[in-house]
Design a protein that fits this description.
With 126 residues, this protein is mostly beta strands. The chain has one domain. The protein is 7% helix and 52% strand. It is built from one helix and 14 strands. Strands 1, 2, 3, 4, 5, 6, 7, 8, 9, 10, 11, 12, 13 and 14 form a 14-stranded parallel β-sheet that branches. It is globular and about 35 Å long. The termini are far apart.
């Protein structure tokens, strides 16, 4: 079996982890940071940071304060604050956030809605 080993320290201090050999079918809700290196089919609601490691695969709607992606995401991705797509990220999703960072090499297909853009346009036009 070919296992992907994370080469970064993504979520190294996270207490809640879903390992590479774990598959979850169903929704996840948490008030603390989560690191996902396994597979999740279902919606995820995290009040803090959600880390998706290089071997992590998510199919569903994601809601979190911050989201850092190194793995694969299919669905909708909503962050109250920031979404970061690192170089190994493969994302096919509509995203909504205040701040977005996309590294060279990251793949993204979908729409992005950034909160506050309309306010900036209104201020500039007056």
């Amino acid at each position: 079996m070919d296992k992907k080993v994370s080469k970064s320290n993504i979520g190294s201090d996270v207490k809640c982890r879903i390992g590479q050999e774990t598959k979850v079918t169903g929704n996840i809700k948490s008030s603390e940071d989560i690191l996902i290196d396994g597979e999740v089919s279902g919606d995820i609601d995290v009040k803090e940071k959600l880390y998706i490691g290089q071997s992590g695969q998510i199919k569903g709607k994601i809601m979190a304060y911050d989201v850092i992606v190194e793995g694969k995401v299919e669905g909708n991705l909503n962050a109250e604050n920031r979404i970061e797509l690192r170089d190994s990220a493969y994302v096919t999703a509509d995203m909504e956030c205040k701040n977005l960072a996309v590294s060279d090499g990251a793949f993204f297909e979908g729409k992005v809605q950034m909160e506050g853009v309309d306010k900036i346009k209104t201020t500039l036009s007056t």
